[in-house]
Amino acid sequence: MDLPEAHRVAPGRHAIHATAVSCSGRGLLILGPSGSGKSSVAAQMIALGATLVSDDRVEILEDGRLAPPPGASALIELRGLGLVACPVAPAPFSASLLLAAPTARLPEPETLDLAGHRVPLLRHAAAPDLGAKLTLWLRALP
């Protein structure tokens, strides 16, 4: 899958089709096509203590934060269950995940350049244990 692009929506603000969560003060941008499991991974992480930044559409701010679009509802879609209210908060743009098959069991580090910010990029297929692995990985980031 090609990496999606962020689109400028206002001075200092870019929007992208994604979901984002915050864990240990680090914001994770979750990328993938519709139906790939972005909200499901976020829900797993929220159940483990992460905070929702935004579901379905995320803004990348010039100052390096991930944030919900202005006026966005504080909801996450739980496929098959509906929309659920969830506290939201902006977070520093610290890492990104592309829901796709990984390139190797222990892949070489990759980065993503998006809206003027460079962050680590992980590639991983949606899996039942992915939320737990990402939570541990974010806690371990320097």
TrEMBL record:
A Gene Ontology molecular function term of the record: ATP binding
Keyword list, A-Z: Kinase, Transferase
Boundaries of every HPr kinase/phosphorylase C-terminal domain copy: 13-84
InterPro entries reported for this sequence: Hpr_kin/Pase_C, P-loop_NTPase
GO biological process: regulation of carbohydrate metabolic process
Protein name: HPr kinase/phosphorylase
Species classification: Bacteria, Pseudomonadati, Pseudomonadota, Alphaproteobacteria, Rhodobacterales
